[in-house]
Design brief:
386 residues, alpha+beta, Aminopeptidase, Thrombin, subunit H, 8-stranded mixed beta sheet, 9 helices, globular, binds zinc ion
Length: 386
């Protein structure tokens, strides 16, 4: 990975974020795009749209008559965390949890706090209540290390470790790789495409959609689909969900990005998937993995529900949603709070796949053509036995 890419990745992973509190990620991405002169705007839901300067520009891209599908790369900017609700005393903040979380060894667990200005402080959890299914946290109290003179509802936070992000060899440990690694991949892909595009005449069939509040049911991306903008299309569209997904047998950290065949809810579009799978064989032979990543659901499911062909690429993720499944540094107890971790080679491979998906003239319209020829040849060779 180039020093510039690594710098951008670490910068993104160091931003505080929680569902509905993606402001610092948005600011960080905005700075990078502005500097590179890449068009972007915020949709009415607050998602960032990259590759178009405005709603009118976006609609123009959707309405271009072309056989080249518009690739809509989707990643979410939030990560499970909490919102402040009310002060119980000058140092005790009642908080409500949003999204997944470990459910063991929570008493005394360290948390960070932030507000719209940036990092605000730190504290420890106590009196944690789980949701009825016991699968995640419902609410808790945060005992602050130092009292804060700020409105309770201006504060948000998540689990804290030795640093927001640090490196050990090729592994990156962080409070939140899901899905800031996906955000990084989209921004890096945009930088590469639009950097090269200065010498190109035709518009690039690329839209990056950085969404909000995925962790509570794809709220940002569903809000975007509900705008109906994509329904105005006069060209094919393919949605590409980029996720950091719970590592599973066959989707091992460090063995390459995963051609995601599906998630916990559904399998993905078989035609577009065939294009992606063949590309992966070509550009990352022996250096990618493929499987249904059913450790969680992703925004490709939301796209599928709205009728858009969708595929996915995953970076295998250790300690998914800060649950100490794989353990390692700063994980004091198995299944307790733990930093997420990802592998630099997997992220580099994801960038290669994203770039490959942007090649012109891929067989989107008839992905199975070669396969059909092979099947027909086989039929011919056995015809005499029929
Ligand atoms: Zn995610």
């Amino acid at each position: 990975m180039s020093p510039q890419h690594l710098h951008l990745l670490l910068d993104l992973l160091a931003q505080p974020t929680a569902p509905f509190r993606e402001e610092h990620v948005i600011a960080c991405v905005g700075r990078v795009l502005e500097q590179a002169n890449i068009p972007f705007f915020a949709d009415p839901v607050g998602n960032l749209v990259i590759g178009a300067a405005s709603k009118a520009d976006y609609l123009r891209r959707i309405r271009e008559k072309s056989t080249e599908p518009l690739r809509v790369f989707i990643a979410h900017m939030d990560h499970p965390g909490f919102h402040g609700v009310e002060w119980l005393s000058p140092r005790r903040l009642k908080v409500l949890w949003l999204g997944g979380a470990p459910v063991k060894h929570l008493a005394g667990a360290a948390v960070w706090l932030a507000d719209s200005h940036g990092w605000a402080g730190s504290g420890a959890l106590r009196n944690v209540a789980l949701v009825a299914s016991k699968r995640t946290i419902h609410s808790a109290e945060v005992v602050l290390d130092t009292p804060l003179d700020k409105p309770a509802n201006s504060l948000y936070g998540g689990f804290q470790f030795r640093a927001p992000v640090w490196r050990r060899g090729k592994k990156i440990y962080t409070k939140a790789a899901d899905d800031l690694v996906g955000v990084f991949a989209i921004v890096a892909t945009a930088l590469a495409l639009f950097g090269a595009a200065k010498r190109r005449a035709s518009p690039i069939p690329f839209i990056g959609l950085l969404t909000r509040a995925e962790e509570v049911g794809f709220v940002g991306v569903v809000g975007h689909f509900e705008l109906g903008w994509l329904d105005a299309k006069r060209r094919p569209i393919v949605c590409v969900s980029l996720e950091a997904s719970r590592t599973l047998p066959g989707a091992i950290v460090g063995k390459g990005p995963v051609v995601r065949l599906g998630d916990r809810r559904t399998v993905f579009n078989p035609d577009a998937l065939k294009v992606l799978a063949d590309l992966a064989e070509h550009v990352l032979p022996g250096k990618h993995q493929r499987r249904v990543m059913d450790g969680g659901a992703c925004e490709a499911t939301a796209a599928t529900a709205y009728g858009f062909p969708a595929i996915g690429i995953s970076v295998p993720l250790g300690n998914y949603h800060n649950q100490g499944f794989e353990g390692g540094p700063d994980c004091a107890h198995a299944a307790g709070p733990a930093p997420e971790f990802v592998h630099l080679d997997d992220i580099a491979g994801e960038l290669v796949l994203c770039r490959a998906l942007m090649q012109p003239n891929l067989p989107w319209g008839d992905a199975w053509h070669k396969q059909r020829l092979a099947l027909r040849k086989n039929l011919r060779s056995y015809r005499k036995l029929l």
